[in-house]
User: Fold these one by one.
Assistant:
Number 1:
Amino acid sequence: MSHKLTDGGQVMHVGTLARVEGEGAMHIEYHDGVVTDVQLRIYEPPRFYEAFLRGRAHTEPPDITARICGICPVAYQTSACWAIEDACGVEVPEEIASMRRLLYCGEWIESHALHVFLLHAPDFLGYDGAIEMAADHPDVVERGLRIKKAGNDLMEVVGGRSIHPVNVRVGGFYRMPSREELRSVRGRVERARDDAMATVQLVAGFDFPDMEQPYEYLSLRAEQGYPIEAGSVVTSSGGAFAVRDFPSHVREFHVEHSNALHARLDGSPEPYVVGPLARYSLNSDRLSDAARAAASAAGLGPVCRNPFRSIVVRAVELVEACTEALRIIDGWSDGVAPSVPVPPRAGEGFGASEAPRGTLFHRYVLDDEGIIRDAQIVPPTSQNQASVEADLRRLVEAWSDLDDHALQHRCEQAIRNYDPCISCATHFLDLTVDRR
Amino acid sequence: MSASRPPPPPPTLVVGLGSADRGDDAVGGHVARALAALEDPRVVVAQYADPTDLIELWTGRDRVVVVDATCSGAAPGTLRLLETGTQQSPLPEAAWVRTGRGGTHAFGLAAAVELARALRRLPAHVTVVGVEAATLEPGAPLSPAVAAAVPAAVAAVLDAVAGPVGARARQGGSADVPG
């Protein structure tokens, strides 16, 4: 919907921005071809959860924070476990870390399949949504559902259920899945890997608007392999620091128009980006052979800075997650203790993992009985708010000749590039463009 | 030789939809568990949080009942019945406003129904039993009004299992039922 303003400007209002994870609001003011204001307005339950966690036992954050989001509970559980274990001076054995990685692969597969096929692909194929797309491309949608189901199956066999896994605890798991149980989902994951390879080919052929992000990229980087469940922090300008130094590099601050804190890296006023593009660009050398070959065939270089190509990177990450899941399943032996004790002690602990949407940081302060005295959660979508706004600023100016409908569509697509997880959030994402 | 009885119809799938951890969104699960406790051979009960799982779950079935929280502005605990399926036209958008349009995954029950229809994986009869929510706050328990409506929702599901809701609902529309 659009209407003229008395000063000659124009307001475009979109009631609901569909196909983003959750709800929020976007306001764009536009005058003589220049964007004067862009505001992503979202509400942030992690703030509520930080308060809610104070006074709780050190064993509770994996269960409590998993409720923040229906699509990335494993990310919350994993970052919480690392942070609490760090505070208590406990290091989990390699097998437990591997099982965390397997569970996390399930979450990546679920989340990326949903976004690539049901939320993002319709933008590129020219449909209003997945339902309309399914009428003409049922095989594409069926492929997406198959891949997603493989992720659900992994989450169920490792996590106990496909949404909000209940099997995760500080120190490991309540119960380890058996080798036989893991083998029972292997066929589906293998099929999903083949489907993911075909997906990379499919999405690489989409038409991508020409755009390069100049922003700093931030991601975890692991000692080996592609960063999923753990790592230390690296940036595209060569920065490298331990997860425990995250708070001294990343400062959160409040802006008037959003309940979610914005974040600044090393004091820079410029935005920085977390998520698939950052992860890939900082770790493409760490991909498995299968995923690297798929990326190369898709025309991705070692670095990808076009946010619209994030759909290709997500597809490559689907290949990576399936490949990693198969590797862990094939190497699994029974007889591993499901958890190690994590006796409480006073201290501060830090944890981070790569949620599907980017780096998710947790920090907890415990007293000597393990009661949480302070909690901090820095979710990826909060960190990306400034870059979403910066992208929109550039796009609206570059595409000022588009009619309202086309411009609105491009803006929505640009927001979906980030797969924003505002669901940890509020109500509808209203998009208003105010042209003056 | 005695005349053999006709085989019983296949059991109806009843799905309790919604997040267990978001206030009244958990009502689908509560109703599903109450139904499962009845051990009624006419139903098989499942509990899911992700609407996209429905497509896989109900493929090949003739009759399905889904229980979900609704947000329509009605009094908390109000029940609403909504009939859809391949035997019905796609529901108007306005009808879906009464059920969880977005779901936890930006892909709600309405989208799952219509996506399944496009993929030819929608059952002939899908009855949605909606329970009007009072709160969807993370971590909140069921509100008293919604908790009190659970037995009526169970009864409504059993009615739907016994036959189409046509007597109470307009075709492709919905009907209010006293909670």
Note: The CA atoms of residues 34 and 92 of chain B lie 31 Å apart.
Number 2:
Amino acid sequence: MLALRRPLLFAFLFGCAVSLFTSGRLTLRLAGPATLYWSFVPLIEIAALAVVCRGKLRSLSLAHAIDLFFAGFAPWLLWLTGLAAIWSWLRPVEAFAWTKPFWLWIAAPAVLAWSCYIDLRFFRSTLESHPGRALLGHRAISWPACLLWFMASSIWPQVASRLGL
Amino acid sequence: MAGGCLLAIAIAAGTWSDAPRPHPPLMLGPYRVLAADFHVHTFPFSGSTLWPWDLVLEARRQGLDAIAITGHDQVLAGQMGRWFSRLVGGPTVLAGEEIHSPGYHLIALGIESTVSWRLKAAAAMDEVHRQGGVAIAAHPLAQFWPAFDAEAMRKLDGAEIVQPIVYSAGNARREFEEFFARRRFTAIGSSDYHGLGPVGLCRTYVFVREASEPGILQALREGHTVVYDGVGAVYGDPALIQLAGSESRLRGSEPSRPEGGFLVPMSRTCGLLGMIGLSLCGFRLRPTA
């Protein structure tokens, strides 16, 4: 249960954000299914964590490590809540004008840097060695996997044409 | 605890107020007027947030009569959405594809098998027409114009003239209008729904003689559409624009504020406060000690 409580809560809050983005309210019709199918994000994060922590954890179980790792997701959740606030309170015309310049290009990189710092400190305190390598490894596994599941068919033509495939 | 309670209140209020908006059929002259969104994406693989069946239900709530689910380089999402919508008596769903070539983006409506993004624009349009579909230029920004050579322009059925990108990219509106002025296309407004904002934003009003998938495709081939940009401009068939002018329901392409009275802002406020509460109490902003 320790390994699941925060990942499940994260997925649920993600589902809530999806409902607010689309309908401007929190409805079970959207939040429930979105929680289920957006749980691929915590699942991939857990899988990547298990890979980078394998055999290197310092006197704590993997379940405990998962719980501690997900504890550091507050910056992303607050960012998501901010985005949900924009999309649920502003008119779509205003929300489009607001989202791209500020929320995506300024706030998102700031949150990215902040979460990297939190995760680096997590790996430093829980792993016996190479916390920086673990952070890079975790990102290298989890982010492309999430991106592929989210938008594989959008990415492939760009990649294939650049590689001449 | 307080965050959880707020979320519970938000979900109760939001779910209680979550009814489809009233949408009686509209007849103008000999036509039935359908509200349609011909460019929406689903989860997974196409960069959106909702599964096809959730999208169908959301389109119905937004008062849309028709949508086209246009997966990036795949038609499976559209076929799933169409199957589900027939099952629940939802809006007409056209299976489609956004052909996502590096040089151009093309909406293929009413097709059954994937059209390759490797084809040149004109060849892709030939394949769309061979399958009985309609080809529409998706967000025709200047960067895509080189792919639309004379042959492609001759074969193109329609072009998006209003799209949410006009609200966020400075020169998009001017570029869409320049592209649209090159030939008389069917005017299309689409939400290009990727998860943010309502489905049906920038919708197309299609004037059909028969409210069915073939009827919609035929109306698109004949250019029987009207699109409002939400800030005063209107595009489409001049005679139909005049006909539509008599109907106040059609003006303003933006879906109106959600109905449901005080329950909607209550759901929104409690939901956001609950999310902040649970993010701060259940998670940490500072590194783990």
Note: Chain A has one domain: 2-163.
